[in-house]
Amino acid sequence: MNTRTDLIGNMVAEDFRTAAIFKRHGIDFCCKGGRTIEEACSNKKLDPEKIYAELEAIPKNEGSSIDFNSWPLDLLADYIEKTHHRYVEEKTPVLQAFLDKLCKVHGGRHPELFEINTLFNESAHDLAAHMKKEELILFPFVRNMIKAKISGSHLSQPAFGTVENPVNMMQHEHTVEGERFRKIAEITDEYLPPADACNTYKVAFAMLQDFENDLHKHIHLENNILFPKAIQLEKEFTVES
């Protein structure tokens, strides 16, 4: 890994431990992973040398980071669906109930809660549709490509034309969600509960932060690993035919 020339998304794909460093400095490694450190730092007026030093300090021989980049694409699709999609499905109704309660109890003193609630409900609606498109359209095609490659059989052209079409749509929707949660983080002062926060308030903000963190990893696995590899695999079939 050459930290001075590699794209941020590629660095995180190679070693997910780097994600914590980028997140600490407010650098988007998922939706905006197609930049170098220099480019990201220039936009945020950060010192790139400090980030280079932190990246170089990561232990070289540590096996705790899962190497998603080496996984077969069908396994990665299964993992995303059963881990991140399931997380969203399980946590969404809980968070919606907490935020509704906070608006009723604390909305008078903290009117920003209504905007947070609106933003999260928009996210819940859009993510549900987004995940279904992946589960019913994109992921099955990825699995079909893997089966065809293993068996050496013909790959039928999908109704959507090329895999780049749903990928472009998914990436756009990822960007929308990334911006939406950046707004939530800004309104909540990076998920810091106010001094008069009750336990529900504190738990809701902690869950929102966990939700965003999970979403970042979810988007990273797709934008930086699954999508580019699916596009490359489809091109291999084009060359063979």
Automatic annotation (TrEMBL):
InterPro entries: Hemerythrin-like (IPR012312), RIC_family (IPR019903), ScdA-like_N_sf (IPR038062)
Name of the protein in its database record: Regulator of cell morphogenesis and NO signaling
Transmembrane segments: none
Statement: the UniProt record of this protein carries the keyword Metal-binding: yes
Taxonomic superkingdom: Bacteria
Subcellular location: Cytoplasm
Tagged with keyword Phosphoprotein: no
One GO MF term attached to the UniProt entry: metal ion binding
One GO cellular component term noted in the UniProt record for this chain: cytoplasm
Domain Hemerythrin-like: 82-230
Keywords annotated in UniProt: Cytoplasm, Iron, Metal-binding
Pfam families recorded: Hemerythrin, ScdA_N
Coiled coil: none
